[in-house]
Write the structure tokens for this entry.
Amino acid sequence: MKIFDYMEKFDYEQLVFAHDEASGLKAIIAIHDTTLGPALGGTRMWTYASEEEAIIDVLRLARGMTYKNAAAGLDLGGGKTVIIGDPRKDKSEALFRALGRYVQSLNGRYITAEDVGTTVQDMDYIHLETDYVTGISPAFGSSGNPSPVTAYGVYRGMKAAAKVAFGSDNLSGKTIAVQGVGNVSYNLLKHLHEEGANFIVTDINEDNVNKAVKEFGAKAVGINEIYGVECDIFSPNALGAVINDDTIPQLKAKLIAGSANNQLKEERHGDILQEKGIIYAPDFVINAGGVINVADELNGYNRDRAMKKVETIYDNILKVFEIAERDGIPSYKAANKMAEERIDQMRKIRSNFIRQEKSILGR
């Protein structure tokens, strides 16, 4: 992989390699774009097969955060951190404090948070070295567990997408195939159950499935059966890349809307969905509740204010489909365009101010 060629192709700003021998820290921080503001994105800890795999992942994730933050209407850019290591055995206070010092050295260009493989406790250790971290313990003014807020945002986004797919945002009586019943999905099921939806569920964790069956009257199916069930809505809430050449022919749903990241294995799968008449609610727009919530911490967390912002996911989803119809493009392209248009608009505004300042100064 030619790193600088890749960074140039997708307009990355910075890549930082962080190493601390004493704690064993091996981490990479990627800052994609800070046009809208400092880059915000979580810290992922994973057992990468190679350093190149870790670099590719952090670059991909950082760019994804630029689009997610822009589409959510946040004044934040996109960034991400990955730590090479096993989150089950390689964690220590020293490791996360070492990372905190690297985050601090960026002087606010990057703000981190928890992600796959990291926890609130890990963020608290980082917080001992820097203020540029969110998702810390409520005792420090944090919002706490973001899962319920993410779930509420997905619920609101699903209702908006249902309005496009079915002509009404009423989900009562709709059958929803739910893939994955983790923390976010469980809270999503609560909202949907209260509205009168019906569920078909699957999860690799049998206890999660049993809980959904008991509490929400869900029907359980096997891991690979979920794609082909008769339903109105397919809701991916676990792994990414589940919309692919193997699964699309099985789908009977009219709408896809869920919390999982990177649901399309390849962009062309979004084109195929459109050809088949399946409505797709782009993942980084519908699942933005969590990042909206932690972003509010930067202003001194106010739950009412954060939830009001999360409510706008409904409008953002509708806007995506308005752009798609306007330009005759699939919804995934429309979501990208919505984010890019906002970034370009802000870039132009800043350029105009710079030109005016230079003119005033006679330069």
Q: What stands out?
A: The chain has a mean pLDDT of 94. The CA atoms of residues 124 and 136 lie 5 Å apart. Residues 331-361 form the longest helix (31 residues). The radius of gyration is 21 Å.
